[in-house]
Amino acid sequence: MLWTLVRKEIFGQLLNVRFYISFALACLFLVPATYILANDYGWMHTEYGPYLTEGLYNPWGLERFWVNRQIPPLRVLATGLDESLTLRSHNTVSDGPDFGESQFVHNPLSDILPHLDFVFFVNMVGSLLAFAFTYDAVSGERQRGILRLTMANSISRAVLILSKFLGSYLSFVISLLPALIGVVLVLSVHPDVGFGVSDWKATLWLFVLALLNIGVFVMLGIFASCVTREPKTTLTALMTIWVLLVLVVPNFSPFLAAKLHPIPALHQVHERIKSLSSSRDDEVRKEQEEYVKAHGGDHGSMSQQEKDEHGAIWLEYRMNLQVKELTQVWEAFFNEMEAQAKLARYLSLISPSAITTYLASDLSHTGIESEHAFRFAIIRFRREFAANLTRYMQQTGDKTKLWFVDNKLAPAFVLPRPTISQVISTHLPQFIVLVLYGFLCFCGAQITFIRSAI
To answer: Taking the model in full, what pTM does it have?
Structure first.
């Protein structure tokens, strides 16, 4: 009986114009958007790829160097932080790290327009289409009198609601399937996108995440259809719910987190660093003055070796100050930022759209966790580099390395990049929340439908 009702529901959806609208929107949106972002990825790889080789970048052996990471390939599906995602850190032997930013999408309108990627389609367009498939699933048949005729047969109400969900959900997925195949084909044949095995696994999980998100909104639509008596009332209620879950909660959660867990403003961090640096600068200048006095009292009459040693006092001091004190200020600030971001994620758990966005960016290594991992990896790198250089100077007495980077003294740059299984296991509670969200909507629909009059 269940599958008979499911087939009936699917057949009814296939004959409805909304099925073909969903099919057309998915094909016209997903495939071109993926192709455009793949082109942008290729453009940036061509322009910046040679300069963004992961690890230490110092081809000229100068004092200035960069520590880079690769452009995440999965940004073609989930742009995530986009132009705010740090890809390189500027350093000198004595100063740094400074975190530069490289923009991924080189469209100047990207600052005022949302990025039309796979995640945007799932959250915005997909959720609306899910409501379009389900807003009249129960209320529409109740208004037309079809529901009374259906229930005249020996059909359990629980079975009927389950068939409504499965029929609507499968119909919606079928309408999206050609577009998803098109996305896979674009990613497979595009010359600028070279996905590895881990990238394809992440893509598969992105699709699974999208299907979970769509399932939640389909079930939510059926729940609302069970509660209301008329389709127009259902549609009004669903639009209100959509605004709250897709627009209000995801955007209000960071604001509320900032109020509950305030952190210093960026300019305050810079002022603290400037103040700390100034207070220490006076001490080292006195040390330099004493050095000049001990070597004749005139800097111009000192030998080149003495001038180098005089300059090395400042550079060594700056290196130690950066690594031991100023970096601690940044590290504490980044920890506070991470704590605030986690609080915002917890506050937004009532929104399936927010959960989907966070999970998708983490799977694609374009989210908050990836950003913090890179910044903390830079801090670890700087500390190891300073320790190696200090050890070398103590052993050899050679301080010329303070002026020019010796790649042999630089440690290997290690950027923690969790595997897909590790990301899934870490965020398994959020996946469970998505499933639980749909289950609660299903239970609510069952209870409401059982108690309501046909």
So the answer is: 0.86
